[in-house]
Amino acid sequence: MRNTAKITAAVLTAGALTLGLTACGSDSDSGKADPDAALTVAATPNPQGEILTYVKDHLAKKAGLKLEVKEFTDYVTPNTAVQQGQVDANYFQHKPYLDDFNKKNGTDLVPAPGGAVHLEPLGVYSKSVKKLADLKKGASVAVPNDTTNEARALKLLEANGLIKLKAGAGYEATPKDITENPRNLSFKELEAPQLPRSLADVDAAVINGNYALEGHLNPAKDAIAAESAKDNPYANILVVKKGDENDPRVEKLVKLLTSPEVKKFIEDKYDGAVVPAF
């Protein structure tokens, strides 16, 4: 998804059609949000959409929050929608991705105060081998093509001894930064949503947790290697446009998303495929 970090007219048009080009819960005269209006949040379906729907159905009313959830299947439209005021917030990304998106697109999106919500451990999946050590020389490996998640995938492969990256390779590492590749692995860069479908065409694929779940893969059971949750910078956060951090509706949602009830929901529903980050 390296190219998806560039906002194209087609993506913006699709987002406009989906969202109806309406600002959500904003007061056009004062520029301040109506605290009694519904808070509209863009999210990828699984697990973010499911977590938000749980909050909407079980917690929001008691907290005095009207919550609407709009689902998207890509990693660009949720950010452009928040930037343009078509939705109030989004919940689908981690901080490194957000920082990279802002840098490349000139947006001013920020994490809502209150901390991270959950982590989807990135995993390596394969239909041809049962463990990474069985990958043959010249094996093909699919990775996400958006900047931060590609670097994340390469670091996971490095942590498991398959490759070595040059010193200092950070959140923007690409296959060009590989200094040692003893198995001569070939890398296929694909948009993240396509990765589960690529498994029949490659020897292994490094897949984001939400897309693994949508592809009926369980990161806790099906991955042949996975990230450690300890001190992981890739936990998902609620994001708003700068200036909306203190919207009382946003504050309510953050409190609900980091509540004991949501923690139990995540632990019970996802059985380790998604883990609370609070």
Helicity range = 25-40%
Given as residue ranges, the uncertain stretches (5+ residues, pLDDT < 50) are: 1-23, 27-31
Question: How far is the first residue's CA from the last residue's CA?
Answer: 28 Å
- Portion in strands: 15-25%
Shape field: globular
User: How are the strands of the largest sheet arranged?
Assistant: 2-1-3-13-4
Average the pLDDT over all residues and give the rounded result: 88
Structural class by SSE content: alpha/beta
Number of strands: 14
Main beta-sheet annotation: 5 strands, mixed
Provide the gyration radius in Å: 19 Å
Set down the secondary structure blueprint.
Blueprint: H1 9-19, E1 39-43, H2 45-58, H3 60-63, E2 67-71, H4 77-83, E3 89-94, H5 95-105, E4 109-111, E5 118-119, E6 123-125, E7 140-144, H6 147-159, E8 164-165, E9 178-180, E10 186-190, H7 195-198, E11 204-207, H8 209-214, E12 225-226, E13 236-241, H9 248-257, H10 260-270, E14 275-276
Parallel strand pairs: 1-2, 1-3, 7-10, 7-11
Antiparallel strand pairs: 3-13, 4-13, 5-14, 6-11, 6-12, 8-9
Helix pairs in contact: 1-4
